Amino acid sequence: MPLSEGTIRSARIPHGKNQLKISDGGGLYLLIKPSGRYWKLAYRFGGKQKSLALGVYPDVGLDAARERREAAKRLLASNIDPGYVRQQERYAQRMMSVVAATAVVAPPPPEEPIAASVGDEAVAAVENTPINAVPASLESSEQQRLEDRRLRILQQLIRANGYMTNEYLLQQGLDTTGHKISFDRLRTDLAWLSEQQVIRLETSDVWVATLTRHGLEVVEGRLWVPAIRRPEPAA
């Protein structure tokens, strides 16, 4: 029977017990202990029984807990372990905290007059150089890395079960090939690949990419899409 706010507030741990578990259905339950009341979600993934913490009551109310249950179920429907997603989120938060704590802002260099020995023509050349100018060789190198990264994403999908995987696993795979990028950059790549119709993209809480027939042909070298590196021919 689904829970109500009244049922939750009136629930008490039975005498002689150290906790009480009351269920709302769909795997969602409230674990009542002397230390507090904790929302949990019981679920199975990979043939194993697992549980996921969804918050502390009353900071997380009944409606909010149900919303979190449904979000976790959407991940499970996409063959994604919500517990793994939670671990990745916590890791990202820890890394952001470390970066923020260790960041050092360098003071601006003191303004100094240009040495008199520098000729007027040299000064004019420096002043007229755009601050965002990038050498052509660097632009070419970055474009090559971008094209290679897009191919690596497609190659991961062709090896995935059902030609489908999520952004967390894609990022891990890219790390092993020397492409360490942020989730924002990865999502930009995935959105572009989706526009080229080489992947199908599901953009819920966690993005899930599925290789299309066109994407399969690109990986196999049967089709070429500009700005995606051509795969090496099989020996």
From TrEMBL:
UniProt GO BP: DNA integration
Keyword Repeat: no
Domain Integrase DNA-binding intervals: 3-89
A Pfam family per the record: Arm-DNA-bind_3
Key words of the record: DNA integration
Family: Belongs to the 'phage' integrase family.
UniProt protein name: DUF4102 domain-containing protein
Organism annotation: Mariprofundus erugo
Phylogenetic lineage: Bacteria, Pseudomonadati, Pseudomonadota, Candidatius Mariprofundia, Mariprofundales
